[in-house]
Each structure stands twice: as structure tokens, then as C-alpha cells.
Amino acid sequence: MIARSKPSRTENSRGSRHVRAIPGGAIGDSAYNHLAEIKQPALVANGSDDMIVPTISSFTMAQFLPNAHLIVYPDSGHGFLFPYPDLFVDHALRFLR
Fold first, then answer.
1. Which pLDDT value is given to residue 11?
2. Which of 26, 61, 60 is nearest to 42 (CA)?
3. 3-state SS string for the chain
């Protein structure tokens, strides 16, 4: 890995980090197809205005996970837990039961 003093525009763009974390780098690539191999129930939670992990990524992930339960919290971003702590705990406990 080569360290640079200033990230390139692409690395600094919204959502670019989550795409780089997915092998292949884009929706439609086989990385999402591997999610179908996960048989355990999965809780996918996100804010409707998340700029770090775009909300569409959560929708896509939930579509590929066979036992996913998707919750999108309105008018919130990546830190959706802060405006909705009690609601999230309720949702998480119901999911775990």
C-alpha cells in the first residue's frame, strides 16, 4: 500500500469507500451474489439520508440476502441510532427473538 498525503477526488467522493470495499467494486458484480450464501437471518438497518453508505446499498444488500429484514429510519443519516435509539433497540430485540 502506498500512502499519499492527499486522497484523490475519487477516494474522497461520497460512497466511494463502500464501493471499494466490495470485491469487483460495483453493483451487479458477483460480490452481491455471494450474499445469497448467507443463510442466517440478517438485520439491515440504515438511515434514509445516509451519505457514507448510500441507502440504496442497504436495499440492494437486503435483496440479495435470503433472510434479510430491512429497516430504513426516516430523516436520518449514517448515525440513525442517535435520533431513534429506543425504536432501534425495539427493532433489534424483535429481530433477535
1. 38
2. 61
3. CCCCCCCCHHHHCCCHHHHHHCCCCCCCCHHHHHHHHCCCCEEEEEECCCCCCCHHHHHHHHHHCCCEEEEEECCCCCCCCCCCHHHHHHHHHHHHC
Distance CA 67, CA 13 (A): 31
Beta bridge partners of 69: 43
Radius of gyration over every alpha carbon of the chain, rounded to an integer in angstroms: 15
> What is the percentage of the chain residues whose pLDDT exceeds 70?
69
- Of 74, 76, 69, nearest to 97 by C-alpha is 69
- State pTM to two decimals: 0.68
Q: Which domains does the chain have, with CATH numbers?
A: 11-96 (3.40.50.1820)
C-alpha 35/C-alpha 63 separation (Å) is 9
